Amino acid sequence: MRRIRRRRMKRTLAVSTVVANLMMITITLGLAAILIAWTGSTYGLFTSGSQIFFQQRGQALQERFTIENVFLNTTDDCGGQACKRLLIFVRNDGAEELTVVAIYVYSPQHALPSGKDGRIDPASGTCGLTLPTTISVGQVCEFNLNFGVNYPSPPLKTGDNFYIIVASARGNRATFTVRIFIAGT
Amino acid sequence: MRRLLMSRRAVSSMIGGIIILTLFLSALSVMVFISQQYDSYQRTVETMNQRDVDAYSENLVVIYPGLVGPNVTTNDPSGGGSCNRNTPCNMYSILISNDAAIGTQISRIYINSSSSGCVNLCTFDPAPVPTPLTFLESSAFVNPSEFKHEVIFYLTTDLTFTLPTAYGLNSISIVTTRGRVFSTQYPFPPTGVSTISYMVAGTMKIAYQPSLVGGYNSANEGTGDSAHGYCHENPTRVSGSGVPGGTLYFVNPWITQAIFDGYGGSAVGAAFPYNNNKNYTIMYVAVYAVYPNATQTITITGGSIWMEATMPGATQLGDGRLLYLGGSLIGLYYPWSGGPSAPSGVFYSAGSSPLMQGYPVLLIYRITSYSWGNPQLTQSFSDLTFTGMASVTNKREDGSYVGASMPLDGLYIRGSC
């Protein structure tokens, strides 16, 4: 009778109490380690993401630039012929370096020269020939957009206007509307 | 004590507590870090807001007499500039008043002239010594509330600005280091009667239809009539078929609210003789009056104002339809005091309105209708919204305003040809 009881007892005990305790502790610590690692990586991603977000927002906020003046030069010499150049003066008056990535020009009276619709690159100027171009704090850049000799048809006249948008890499933009004056028209 | 230390009853609770504490501390550290980032961002926001407030507080005004000069200078007091005896410079100065309670640093000046001077845009940067196309660095800062601050700048001697004694326009833009641009025109546009008016940049043009000017036909004027100080353009440019009968064209008006804002000290509209009928809108614009020679007197006896879409820069409705504006002239004022035989503030009804050479007049039109073309539909004027470049402000007789911005054009340009 006692033998039978001992056998039943042995069958019901899968592992010893010590082993069972060790297993439970190991499982608990393992899960805890996984939880802490997951939490740490999540928080880390959150932290770095928020840092980048606030940093970029702060830089975008500190970026200030102004289109000071726009002038259409119709008498510029292009190989013996008068060509039209749109001069755009952009000043970085913010606290961060400015990267101009695009200049958009639109005129309701005149279609821009072929290939010049929408975004256009400067032909010359004080800040490089191609976009994007960088303007340091306090610097003023003259973007020189050469529309060529034959632009436009019909000819430009006083009262025609151009809408200019200068866009920065941080998503800011400055706009300017110029109503041109051409003597004698 | 020994039993307490050796007891294993609370080990699992402690392990759990440590895990929870670890999680809590890591979350706390992240929160602290993020709040620091946010604080830093807020400081940036506040700094930039303050910067904006400072920028918008700036208020530079170019004051009378405006542009002074030229004084040819051969002096280079510091010995380092380009203006010297060998290469003299034209020295000009602009008188500025700082109407703000904040100091302002001028970073650049742009001047663009319609006739002489900076026909191609001139840019003036600060320089410590007299140099062509620069202004003196020492005059760049304008103190808070400073009156009559003199900014001295230099041109080469071949560049001379148009002075008030001649026709022409200089557009002056003063740029500050905070990014503000203050623009003015020189010579200053005349102001209206006892109020402020302003002029749209451009050139004054006007043409008189023969029936309006006692036989004078502006279409017969020759090109480049320098004797009378204006240039002539072919009237076909206006409508394609000459000057239509009974029509007066003009361009680039400056706007004044003189009449309605208290002419002669009276209440609004009280002195204006056409303020009782609420069925029409009065548009009032000012133009330079010109006539072909000094011996001929021109009297506006009537006429109408028409905007036609074939005119350069004319208003279009955006869908290809063309806009026409119709109304009749009812009289004029001379808002600028000092006009010969035309004291300021006297109203001349149509038919008794002499035009004095070179003096601005305030032409009063009664705009009764507008329409757009083909087929033309006549609509109530109160529904109209204008788009365009030259601005005209209209005021209905009931006191409400119609914001209007419309292009006007004409035949003659005063100044160089």
How would you portray this structure in words?
With 185 residues, chain A is an alpha+beta fold. Chain A has helices at 2-12, 17-62, and strands at 65-78, 81-92, 98-106, 118-119, 124-125, 133-135, 140-148, 161-168, 173-179. Chain A folds into two domains: 2-61; 65-179, Sandwich (Immunoglobulin-like), CATH 2.60.40.10. Chain A is 31% helix and 36% strand. In chain A, the strands form two sheets. In chain A, strands 3, 4, 6, 8 and 9 form a five-stranded antiparallel beta sheet that branches. In chain A, strands 1-2-7-5 form a four-stranded antiparallel beta sheet, with no helix packed on it. The radius of gyration of chain A is 35 Å and the shape is rod-shaped. The termini of chain A are far apart. In chain B, strands 11, 13, 15, 17, 18, 19, 21, 22, 23 and 24 form a ten-stranded mixed beta sheet that branches. The longest helix of chain B is centred in the N-terminal third of the chain and has 47 residues, at 11-57. Mean pLDDT of chain B is 57; it is low at 190-325, 335-345, 357-361 and 367-417.
